[in-house]
Amino acid sequence: MLSQSTEKQLTNNVCDRQYFLDWVRILAFAFLILYHTAMMFVDWGFHIESGHNSTFLKSIMILSSKWRLDILFIVSGVAISHMITKMSLKSFTWQRVVKLYLPLLFAIAVVVAPQSYYEAMQKGVFEGSFWQFWTSQYFTFSWDERMNAPFPTYNHMWYVLYLFHYSIVLLPLFSFINSDKGKHILAKTENWLSKGARIIWLPLAIYLAIFLTIDDHEVSHAFYDDWYGHAIFIFAVIMGCTFARMPNIWQAFEENRYLALTLGLISYGILLAIFLSPDELLTCDRTVAWDYTSLLVKWSWIALIIGFARKYLNYTNNTLKYCNTIVYPFFILHQTVIIVLGYYVIDWGLSGTLEFLVIAAGTFTVCCLLYELLIKRINVLRVLFGLKWQNIPYPMRAQPITKLG
């Protein structure tokens, strides 16, 4: 059994909000808008293609693609760890249904549908109005080989789909870490893991073990057979959920931030060299070198982002509070807005750079307007976009003044 003082310390630690993780989450989702905009300007296959193929954008995207999803699942794990201290697991499960699964179903039926429509239009799969497409084609549960995804589909909402199921699968772990025995083990783990550079090497070793255990290393986002993706993302959620109970771990990230930065820059340099070098200049197998270097890029960049964020972004202000509110609706909306804008902007005859900037800036603007003018003001939409129902005040009628005397 834990002593009363230790028990109190653990409880207080998990309730302390780590504001730097809020900043990491917000910036990661903001970068996601830029990343998905950039997908139209490279030849990696996207729902809408501009015809451009930017090596510069690829050079940035091969770096961020290694860690941006894992770090979001880590932050989600931290949020889960906080939630399960404030509610029963039964209430938590229902909260996951309302917060994740309901917006997912709404997004599949309504929000994502324009993505499939405009992709089908550009690729010659369909001609006609969106209403015709939505009522006659979208819900046919078919897959045209020219399309990136079937009808209907979840597209970017795969993250929400995965997170919901991880929340259910990991319920036994959540129950365990709330128990006295679980808290005791976490306290011992924290004491060991927070020493030296173990926070750098141990997760990296586990990523390597996952890599060696599973043969197919493609992250497909196809839920039914994305085994490598499930393994690394569940591991990220578990890290976030357990690290939230280990406040000294965040300090360890901060103390090791320059080591992580060194490893991150070296590994990214190697990855970039592999990407840009022709086969005849490589003295090793390209695939093997790429895969192992990618693992080092993944964890070193996650560690350095967390470490530097802990050092410089561990504060709150009105901007953070506002962005925390809008980030989920923005995520649900962003890819649809990108694709709709992109479909029209790429025909304006602008340079690739201007097209990218117009689409990215336009996406932030349209998402903000949709949130401010519609989503936050209509309770049904608030719930469908993952926000809480609230009592929205209505203007009061002026009351007549009764004369005295």
Can you walk through the features of this model?
The chain is mainly alpha-helical. The chain has 2 domains: 4-108 and 154-384, no CATH class; 113-146, no CATH class. The protein has 18 helices and no strands. The protein has helices at 4-15, 19-38, 55-64, 68-83, 89-111, 113-122, 130-136, 158-169, 171-177, 180-193, 198-213, 227-243, 247-255, 257-276, 286-312, 318-345, 352-373, 379-384. Helix 2 packs parallel to helix 16 (318-345). The longest helix is centred in the last third of the chain and has 28 residues, at 318-345. Keywords: Acyltransferase, Membrane, Transferase, Transmembrane, Transmembrane helix. The chain crosses the membrane at residues 26-47, 67-85, 97-118, 157-177, 198-215, 227-246, 258-276, 296-313, 325-346, 352-374. Residues 19-371 form the Acyltransferase domain.
Q: Count the domains.
A: 2
| Percent of residues in beta strands | under 5%
Count, helices? 18
Rg, rounded, reads 23 Å
Helix content: 55-70%
Q: Estimate the global geometry from the Cα principal axes.
A: globular
Largest sheet: none
Protein name: Acyltransferase 3
Pfam families: Acyl_transf_3 (PF01757)
Transmembrane segments: 26-47, 67-85, 97-118, 157-177, 198-215, 227-246, 258-276, 296-313, 325-346, 352-374
GO molecular function, one term: acyltransferase activity, transferring groups other than amino-acyl groups
SSE blueprint and pairings:
Layout: H1 4-15, H2 19-38, H3 55-64, H4 68-83, H5 89-111, H6 113-122, H7 130-136, H8 158-169, H9 171-177, H10 180-193, H11 198-213, H12 227-243, H13 247-255, H14 257-276, H15 286-312, H16 318-345, H17 352-373, H18 379-384
Helix pairs in contact: 2-4, 2-15, 2-16, 2-17, 4-12, 5-8, 6-16, 11-15, 13-15, 14-15, 16-17
